[in-house]
# Entry
Amino acid sequence: MLITTETQTFLLDDAGSGEPVPLRGADNPAAVDESTNLTVVWLPGGDVILLRPDVDTLRLSTGLAADVRCLRLISIEPFVLLVGTVPAQLYRVTGDGAAELMQGFAAAEGRDTWDTPWGGPALVRSLADAEGGWLYANIHVGGIVRSGDRGETWEPVAAGIHRDVHQIVTCPAAPERLYANTAEAVFVSEDRGSSWRHCVSGVGARYGRALAVHEADPDLLLASLSRGPHEGEGRLYRSADAGASWQHINVGFPPFIVGNIDTFCVAFGAAEAADRAWAAEGERLYRSEDLGLTWRRVWEAPAVITAVAATRSL
# Structure
């Protein structure tokens, strides 16, 4: 698995043994993604580190001088990487390092309504994909836009979801389902975002940031919620019924933290680590061996952890 901090990228054996090891040359990571066969780290300046198991690390230069906030590895052969930035644009990076602005996304309906509370430009905060060429982009702030034709054209999802979205995820086992954690808690769609149900039963706070779904069980979720962006009292919740009800997790994990458990800071394991889950708050990394029910602290990072990316399949 992959762990990034504010200053450095670390790799950890997916079995969870040993200490995280710094990835050479991956200082100041901007965004990360990981699949079964490839780890991707985006560095400021447009260089991409590509790490395959048991293969020498490769470095791909894109020349893209953009403020990158999120990545989504769509395929390995051919290599296709989606890159989300601020201001809110999408780029498609291919194996030769070419970075192409996705014109269909640039022309997405509703773009003129995207904004931020602080007055700066909107950004692409997270990305997701599903079989059949479906792509999803989380606009902060501006809801979600989707493409059903591999990114050629884009449209906003239907009304019914809070527009301040902080992370979106999909699950290979339920390709039509889309999940979103928002400033008003979790929403789940069964039809690729055309309609939504608001999932707040059992939660004691509603300001959401991080979200994870188990790769083989589309009903098993982890989400972080708090009292607000500045009020804090961040807490971790678990749902085993696709968000219909939630359980506050506090065995081995702090019942409340001072701030928020941020976007990208919870994840489930995959494959041989299918019973494992990960969560980070501040510099502290926690691991669960029972699908998120109980936890223990396993590492204190040298800087604030910004993302945990557990192995996923392509």
